[in-house]
Amino acid sequence: MASALSRLLFFLSLLFLPLSATGQTGRNISLGSSLYVNGENSSWVSPSGDFAFGFYPIAKGNFFLLAIWFDKIPEKTMVWFANRDNPVQQGSTAQLTKDGRLVLKDHQGRLIWEPNSINGSISYAAMLDTGNFILSSSDSVVRWGSFDELTDTILPTQVLNFGGKLSSRLTETNYSIGRFELRFLPDGNLVLNRLALPTGNAYEAYYWSNTYLSGYQVIFNQSGYIYVLRRNQSILYLTPSSPVLTEDVYHRATLDIDGTFRQYTYPKAGARDGSGAAVWSVVWSAPDDICTAVQININGSGVCGFNSYCSLDNDRWAVCQCLPGFSFFDVSNKFKGCKPDDVVQACKLDPSRRPRDLFTLWEEEDLDFPGHDYEALASVTEDECRDSCLDDCRCTLALFRGDSTCWKKRFPLSNGRISRSSSRKSLIKVLKANYSQLLLLPEPKQKDQETTILVGSTLLGSSMFLNLVFSLTISLYVWYRYHKRSRKVQRNPNMLQSNLRSFTYKELEEATDGFKEEVGRGAFGTVYKGTMQLDSMATSVAVKKLERVIEEGEKELKTEVGAIGQTHHKNLVQLLGFCDEGAHRLLVYEFMSSGSLASLLFGTSKPTWNQRLKMVFGIARGLRYLHEECSSQIIHCDIKPQNILLDDNLMAKISDFGLAKLLRTDQTRTSTGFRGTRGYVAPEWYKNMPITSKVDVYSFGVMLLEIVCCRKNVESFLGNEEKAVLTYWAYGCYRRGRLDMLVMEHQDAMEDMRRVERLVKLGIWCIQEEPSMRPCMKKVTQILEGAVEVSVPPHPSSFISSLG
Would residue 666 show up in a list of annotated catalytic residues for this protein? Predict the structure, then answer.
């Protein structure tokens, strides 16, 4: 009986499927027809007007996808797109050529996309009322259709055969392939997988239809049902039993960016939300709770990436949040995970200092991190669990469960989720305020005091007379040692705190093989590469010979170097030691293997857009530290690409910070009265105005524009004056709405114009002539991270402040 009913429902459902794609009426599009971006003919519309095929604007209208969308509704929701990884600009065309090819070409005439395969000759094209754009032969046989090349959405009348696959977007505004896919496997199962980007390898499924060896097709019929048709012609319905009929609503089913496959409806007339506007409503989704479902497979990072956790909002969308002490890698893509804001605890950094002196525990109820624990403790109290994690330098987080079980986990943390039924509490180790530098300092040595105590204890067993004599001797020894140390501290308090090493000139001469290999030269002196034994390891170092140092010599050098030695930040080049011997003044730094930002940025092989973004963030954070977070404010006074060095991973680090005070007042002049390099110096240097940290902000703004555009600030060979000076050119392009002209030679930047605009606007704010109008570096980093919006900047010579 049940089997007969299933077959009856199946054949009834077929009535709602078209007999063929060309069975519908369509406005035929003849060979030789073309579409133009923003032209009179920018789209081809279906007979009913429900769907349109053409150029869909993205990134605030600066770029376009060749796409299909619902055309009658205000949202113009996309359901298919051709060039998801390669948006085009103004001047691009789509053409149905005379020889029957459908081609998309960019503004320079380069082929961007055409269908994967067309089976036979083509006589015309048509946009059908089903949402399928087809290429057809003269006898009305469909040779290709958009339904054949799946993106992230399926529509009523669409069928998934074996191997059919939907791929989510990366973000709401980035249409590249994302982290999730829906596949109809040859074994008959419909599954959802998470992908490991950029390889695209699939992790184990987190949802499946349970139609192994029985599934034949996945069908989205015209009545709004999505179901798996089995080989025996029975049906497994995935959607609710009574969807709204297509006469009343539009239907679509989309694999969304959070990994959930959702079916939506949109009222054709009548139904509205509270504000009176029509909306897309979810009528079915799989899985029901994406945060919990993905955790079934504990491999990888989870829904939201490493060091973050997933929760559901009221509409059951995944919301990603960072753990305390972490921030998003990319605020425009919060599924990418989070990075630590400060030094990550490691046993090798603090072998003698108790971790509990540096860290505390932040707790969160119902926060769970399934799997990947390195130790499990049974029959313990919550306090014992806390103590175990605090005293363990490997422990980043401990999970405590009500049954007296404690799981300890190390960095990076994965598969985070809020689970109300887990009855678990997460105890996350976070650095105490103002303790980041202590991680890099060794525990004060107690050897001398311990020796004194041991000797004194031995004497207690001797005669009274000898005890008295030796006690006086020990007292005199302790007094002598104490005052000797006191005098030493009073001479050089900064040097002791900085834990820098004092080298002899001979040591550095041997380390550099007689200062043989010169690796750099600048206003502060010449830099040589060397090799030294540091911590029992052969380590490459950079030895800088300071030239024309101020007359105060030893006192000034040790004071300034002591201050520099107390700075510890991943975006500052680390000072390892110094030499102050006779006329010799040398500094020893960590060696930066990838050279300077200038050599990479202005060389033949340009860094990628993502690499440049990483550098901008690093430089900004380093400057923020110098200006606002280290013990005494340091103004660099010579920020430029030549003073930004890069390590093996192209992490940007600021060099030569804090050295301006060591130079004679005439050493870095290129015009009377100022320090720095022409093109990067702030106007106040010329105007005898007070010098503040805003001079570094100005230099950063110039360099930011150089990084965005991948060109020098001044290029005299370019001819006209506006284009030759980058700051003029950038502002002019911004005012004309032609930021594409700044990055048009860099395709990866062209695909991220929203961020290009943000960075250019920020750069213009930083180069304002009036210092008070420039943002501080804290606000700069907040703007870069997306925490603060950047407003429209005035002309750099304007004196109207609205940013602060």
Answer: no
